[in-house]
Task: structure prediction
Amino acid sequence: MANTLMLGWEFPPLFSGGLGVATYGMVKALSRNNSIRLIIPSASSIDLQNVNIVGLNKVNAEEINLERLRFDFSFLENVHQLPIAISPYHHVNENLETISKDEFELLVEGKATVSTIHHLFSGKEVYGRDIMHKVYVFSKLAEQIALNSEFDLIHAHDWVTYLAGIKIKQRTGKPLILHVHALETDRAGESTRNEIYGLEKNAMLLADKIIAVSQYTKNQIALHYGIDPSKISVVHNGIDQAKPERKRHQLKDKLVVFLGRLTNQKGPEFLLETARKVCTVYPRVKFVVAGTGDMFIHLLETSAYHKLGSKFIFTGFLSKEKANELLSMADVYFMPSVSEPFGLTALEAAQHQVPSVISNRSGAAEVIQSSLSADFWDTDKYANYIHALLRYNALSKELSARANEQLDSLTWNHASEKIEKIYHEILKNN
Amino acid sequence: MPSVCFYFQVHQPFRLKHYDCFKIGHDHFYEDEKSNKEILDRVSRKCYLPSNYTMLSLIDKHQGDFKIAYSLSGTVIEQMEKYRPDVLRSFQALTETGCVEFLSETYYHSLSFLYSKNEFVRQVKKHREKIKEHFNQEPTVFRNTELIYNNEIANFISIQGYKGIICEGVDHLLGYRNSNFIYHPPQNQNIKCLLKNYKLSDDIAFRFSNKGWDEWPLTAPKFANWVHQVAGNGETINLFMDYETFGEHQWPETGIFDFLAHAPSQILAHPDFDFKTPSEVIKKYEARGEYDAPNLTSWADIERDLSAWLGNSLQHDAMERIYALEKKVKETQDQNLIDCWAKLLTSDHFYYMCTKYWNDGDVHKYFSHYNSPHDAYINFMNVVTDLEHVLEMEEEKTEKLSIQSPM
Result:
């Protein structure tokens, strides 16, 4: 039983990637035994028992004491226009919302009112071009709120909340747990050493404990951030237990589904190369690509160049319902990610009884042992696996049945028990 | 006067090379010649040659009082012919002592009895011919692949003229009785069953080097003492195991060869004990009761069933696909094609697909060169798909010919 100050960023209904889904599932399961104060940029009307949700988009003036706060954005002068690659979740086709400079000026001059804050955090874009400003403002406000709160420990989700986590730890002396859902090295490549990487690394050094969503991510933290592995615990995410039904599609071809943002991290070029190879040995196939991103045009043009236009179906971004419908008709789920800390979609595919071929640089490959995994660049192996799943029905059935069994142990309750143990140990030592 | 009956299994499969989907329709050679040769070389160096040498010295030393039996699969003999004729000669040298017996089995170390009686009979016959050719013996005792056994197999093989059959001594089938007597199948006095004493056999084969075992280290006098305790409650102690136990599964450093070199004299130190081959055992001892095995049993794993080869849907699927080709393959009358198909029936291919203990990383993993049972299945199925393709081409050829030829 702990009193937790949780710092989150994405939360339903506003989310862009897996972070919102994971935060919600975890908070809900943890709230059975713990009381939680959750600070997020933007809260809706979602209400959870034992959870006090504070959204900065509707925060009370008393909690933040704006008059005394001084904002200084000078450290950001050189990075007003952040390169797109460091934004964690791209929506290239959507216009990024830019917060008007005036609002930041008001903050710097100490003239901002609580409605300025509400406005700042009520946009629909959870990251956006001004993400660094938002992260900074979030940290200052969360610190203020924390000083008015009772709690035993701080639990911060992903880099966007780490700055706030550090500040609160420094002001209150309470232990800080970082929950790593993704790393800058996943998003921007292993050799990345940008501001976000620096922020992550500093936070990791200062934190009392780090929770990684997979053994793979734990290894990455140790390798690229130089953190002592004994400080890092692995807690695999849960998945809401569901048994969706299979649907039949009307196409004569079999469907291989790719679901995710079309960014380098997700390996779209390996998708293309694999598709080209699969088509030479199994022509009765279509690759359905659901998602959008900065690689879309490249993928579209290259597939046409290889005369594979008729083999690809690009759906664009799909809503949750549409994505589920697609999975319920899929024959193979394909996730050739270069780096995938967890890979919730592979688990969702498994729920839909779809066997998957996935990159072994993923958390999903750890938890679904019956998936077929390969090195992210090994398109021969990917193609051999996809071909086998398309041609040998017994394999498809066996793997999807096993994967479905393996999901049974991946519940949020199970994950929250592990987290509670970590809470307990930290509180014992402090 | 109880007898100790040793039988050693010698087998190597023709392992398949990495065969991905891009090879289907283009590459019709499936064997991994390099690794088959390398593994035979390794096992010959570590086990076959030193063990044969030890056996030969023991036979020499005991002047006819030490006897053993082997079962060599057709596939391992073929590999020896091809890669290691010296090893084959060392087995032939053992035959010449008159103290070594060879058993009958399916040529391709297959589960053919369960899928095709025709193919089973063909393989048993082919194996007899091979044994006759190299060792000039005509076996009277049969051992089925992995000691897969039930009443039906015993009855079937007895009709073929065999006098004895080797099987596992399964506790629940024995009830209060033990494996140290000869039995016969229900309503059939024409064939005798030799039951493996799995406790004493596995003490050597599996537990010998296990330091966590409370009887470790196992010495020759200690083992002989256990054997001698059977006196008065048994007539034959059947010690059946893989030959690779010596030097390959149990490394030389464990002292296994010393144990082997000393165990026979320790056993013979008791005047009531001797060594007999399986055919001598069934000649000497009467069947003392019925051994009723209505269901299939084997010597594998703790389950002693067929789940190592037919425990999941992948294994069933692969097995059915390959046996479904029998008619077409045989109709071609192309000996190369028939051999190629039959090599795919070897039980090892299906063992590699076993998923039951895969996650524990146990003995199954040790025996497999695949990263996972799924990889094993995919590789095998790609090969089968190519073979199906080859057969279709053959069919087309014959159809064309029959159209062209006048009535």
Summary: The mean pLDDT of chain A is 90. The longest helix of chain A spans residues 412-429. The interface with chain B takes residues 277, 280-282, 369-370, 372, 380-381, 383-385, 387-388, 391-395, 397-399, 402 of chain A (CB under 8 Å).
